[in-house]
Amino acid sequence: MAHYPNTPGMTGVLRPLRIEGDILDMEVEGEIPAQLNGTFHRVHPDAQFPPMFENDQFFNGDGMVSLFHFHDGKVDFRQRYAQTDKWKAERAAGKSLFGMYRNPLTDDESVKGMIRGTANTNVMVHAGKLYAMKEDSPCLIMDPLSLETEGYTNFDGKIKNQTFSGHGKIDPVTGNFCNHGYAATGVLTDDVSYFEIDPQGNVLFETFFKVPYYCMMHDFGLTQDYVIFHIVPITGNWDRLKAGKPHFGFDKTLPVYLGVLKRGADGSDIRWFKRDNCFASHVMNAYQDGTKIHFDTCEAKGNSFPFFPDIHDDSFDPVAARPFLTRWTVDLASNGDEFTSIEKLTDWIDEFPRIDERFIGQPYRHGWGLVMDPDMPMDFLRGRASGFKMNKIGHWDLVARTEDCWWAGPESIIQEPCFVPRSADAPEGDGYIIALVDNLITNYSDLVVLDALNLPAGPIARAKLPIRIRSGLHGNWADASKLPRAA
């Protein structure tokens, strides 16, 4: 008999869902644009069995992949577990066997040495496959339409890294899938590799290098010639794991670094720039401007993750935790390691930034993201696992320096948005924003479709679910032409 703990990570808005199923032709309010022909995949952590430890992290749940298939003005829905090695072993045992988040010391003896990954962080279509990703394990391959699991891969032994981070990016110029993995040679190691996979699924190269200190390297930036890594002190060590503490903790005594690595080089000439302590996780975009590199990320003065507490036991500061879209600039022509400039781009509290991904690594104009507006009425108490109550989708025009938004109303929070171009050759930003909106009062979720350049007009359509989907992490759109067979 399943008894989930009465903890913030397992109750209320984060209560486990554990539902697999299909809905053919979802109920729609409004009209789905005929141009939308493809799939939106997203994933959330959803522990199939109660955790071994009551205080375990929300992020340790098994990956549950949701598929929204757009075609002919309709939307079909499918949801399946990512059947990782962990999921299979625990399904056979009928209980949890793997212990605390990223702590192999807490596992049942029967699964020691097995891949612990949950494939719960991001899903992306490439080379006709669905890559299900979690940054502490290899890539899990799934079918993008049936959601059947094929299994883990090291790409025929061509990727030596043991990990495959959750924020892979597809270079719009080459079509290459670009990604990295940290703790590349084992848990808590300072080894990282960067690799690229061509449009047919072949590994082109892998470059190993070391970082200034081990930390959560959740995202990165890509430019035409370089890959950019921000080293932010959400860090860990074996003493923490032996003591049963969370894998990561925030260390406000450490500086922040920005590493600039030449794509395809051997890693020996990686350039490190250094700045004062801060928190930054997700990256909107990066691009080159002569010898300068611009890197746009959501920066907070203090730790934004209360579930990864300060390693010196300082109390969590919810105001210092608020992130704001910020541009970091470094100059490769400089002789020192200082940042050229740090520019705050908005006064909105924002996270989960997205762009028109046809402009990854290039100068760009438009960006979108989730916004928390604490001045708007809220009829609910809790928001995301971070504590943030993301009640708006924001749009930034970084050339005109204007911004606009859509508010989801007093009952709802919003999951990560995704941009879909109106057509392959549409101008930058001309398209749609899709996002799950969770009504925390009625307990239902809608997938909303908005005009990306006219957010205040509100949803063009809502595809309505008869359930509320658990808070997810990330997701991506794939045009029908990228799918393995006719949709």
Keywords summarizing the entry:
single chain, mainly beta, 6-stranded antiparallel sheet, 5-stranded antiparallel sheet, 2 helices, 33 strands
Architecture overview:
- The radius of gyration is 21 Å and the shape is globular.
- The strands form 8 sheets. Strands 2, 28, 29, 30, 31 and 32 form a 6-stranded antiparallel β-sheet that branches. The protein has a 5-stranded antiparallel β-sheet with strand order 1-5-4-3-33, with no helix packed on it. Strands 6-7-8-9 form a 4-stranded antiparallel β-sheet, with no helix packed on it.
- Helix content is 3%, strand content 39%.
- It has 3 domains: 1-153, no CATH class; 176-341, no CATH class; 346-469, no CATH class.
- The chain has 487 residues and is an all-beta fold.
- A hairpin with an 8-residue loop joins strand 11 (177-182) and strand 12.
- The longest helix is centred in the N-terminal third of the chain and has 9 residues, at 85-93.
- The model has no long low-confidence stretch (mean pLDDT 96).
User: How many whole angstroms does the radius of gyration measure?
Assistant: 21 Å
Low-confidence stretches: none
Amino- and carboxy-terminal Cα gap:
40 Å
Number of domains: 3
